[in-house]
Specification:
Layout: H1 3-21, H2 26-39, H3 45-49, H4 55-71, H5 75-84, H6 90-105, H7 110-116, H8 120-123, H9 133-145, H10 154-168, H11 180-198, H12 225-243, H13 255-265, H14 271-277, H15 280-299, H16 301-313, H17 319-333, H18 339-357, H19 362-371, H20 383-391, H21 396-421
Length: 425
């Protein structure tokens, strides 16, 4: 085993430990990878830092800016106010609440969704057929389960980052489509939604909500009507252009950059707003971790890891069994650690395994992605779930037991969904 191979595998182990610990900043982890691998000579300077100029990283940054512009509008408040004004039967309240959560999740993070829906606790009086504690935790779960249901917010960047990982790990021949994540989310999200609306919410106890667990969110003032119309119009045109990019004379990654420039030129977006919209931790993490994938391919570490994963499954496992193993591993790990960390640890390993075995890795990438958003069984699974847990004054068994059927149904639906899109059976 060569020195470069040992250094690369050692770096991979350190990165996994850093993700598992939850103590290291994601941007720091990415920069650690690129800097250390360059320092020890595994990668040269262009290989270690060249990903900052990659089309995927640039496009992801441009899409963050677009999402920030959309968040300036009054759309989020309008959705929330609509839900708050419909205080009718218990099931109707749950239905409207979860619909509102799903819509908001397409625009902001689950943590933001929980905070924005907090005013609903003021709208539900003592005579309400549903307690806020019967909404908070199911809402946090649904927010995670429906991320990227539409190509908004997180959906804007998912397929870009997935393609970056596929390319970096030797699977460039299997590009992810813009709407693949959206399509694969539909079935598990629907199954989870139906469960909570008809059964799940009744299994949660009625507790008084502790609003001090959630930071107060001030009413966000929407921008003026002219600016809103421009943002909506530019956003819709951008989505259409991205969907039809194969038929346009310009590269796909240029489209959101043009949209950002148009918004800035029309006065809808300032330089400060654009800068604040970019999640630099995500950019640094992506650019840094892509170079680790480069090192894995360059030194042969990818083949070693893939062979190890297959050996652990025993004998000569089928692609379906490999995919199922990664799905279950991701779904279980995310209950006790960050879903982002779980995803970033497992996806490169899954792609390497699929490439080494000669089958399409896209189903596994989607399965891991969806499995790691099924944060529901414990408060350790996500910051937003932890906040809902604390605010609702739940005990662990009070959320574990009601969510266990949802977890099982959600995982089964994921396996079916990804194999309908990218069949391995």
């Amino acid at each position: 085993m060569s020195t470069e191979l040992m250094l690369t595998l050692g770096t991979l182990i350190v990165v996994i430990v850093m993700f598992l610990s939850g103590k290291a900043n994601f941007g720091f982890i990415g920069m650690f990878c690129s800097t250390f691998l360059c320092l020890v000579g595994v990668l040269d300077f262009s290989e270690a830092y060249g990903n900052f100029a990659s089309t995927n990283v640039i496009m992801m940054s441009a899409m963050f800016i677009m999402a920030g512009a959309l968040n300036k509008t009054s759309l989020v408040n309008k959705v929330r106010d609509f839900i708050m004004s419909r205080n009718t039967s218990g099931r109707t309240i749950v239905f409207l609440y979860l619909i509102g959560v799903i819509l908001l999740t397409q625009l902001v993070s689950p943590l933001g969704v929980i905070s924005m829906m907090l005013p609903l606790s003021m709208a539900l009086g003592k005579d309400s057929p549903v307690s806020t504690s019967q909404l908070l935790y199911p809402g946090a779960v649904m927010s995670h389960a429906t991320q990227a249901l539409t190509p908004l917010g997180m959906g804007l960047t998912y397929y870009v980052t997935a393609n970056a990982l596929l390319e970096a790990n030797g699977a460039a021949a299997y590009p992810m489509g813009m709407f693949d994540k959206c399509l694969s989310v539909i079935l598990p999200a629907t199954v989870t939604f139906i469960y909570f609306v008809f059964i799940g919410y009744k299994l949660f106890p009625k507790h008084e909500v502790d609003t001090t667990q959630i930071a107060e969110v001030k009413e966000k003032k929407g921008c003026d009507p002219r600016t809103e119309k421009i943002i909506y119009t530019v956003f819709i045109i951008t989505m259409i252009c991205l969907a039809c990019s194969n038929y346009l004379p310009i590269p796909m990654h240029i489209i959101p950059i043009i949209a950002d420039l148009v918004l800035a030129a029309l006065g809808c977006l300032t330089a400060r707003e654009a800068k604040n919209s970019i999640n630099f931790d995500s950019v640094l993490m992506m650019a840094g971790l892509l170079c680790l994938s480069t090192a894995m391919q360059k030194t042969g570490a990818a083949q070693v890891v893939a062979d190890t994963v297959v050996a652990l499954l025993g004998g000569n496992p089928s692609p379906v069994m490999i995919e199922l193993a990664f799905l279950i591993t991701g779904a279980c790990l995310t209950q006790v650690m960050s879903n982002t960390a779980t995803y970033n640890v497992l996806v490169p390993l899954a792609i390497m395994t699929a490439v080494a075995r000669g089958f399409d890795p896209r189903g596994m990438v989607l399965a891991i992605s969806l499995g790691t958003t099924g944060a529901m069984l414990t408060p350790m699974s996500s910051p937003s779930v932890a906040i809902a847990f604390g605010a609702g004054k739940y005990k662990l068994k009070e959320v574990f037991l009601p969510c266990l059927p949802a977890f099982i149904l959600h995982t089964i639906a994921i396996f079916i969904s990804v194999n309908l899109l990218y069949p391995l059976w």
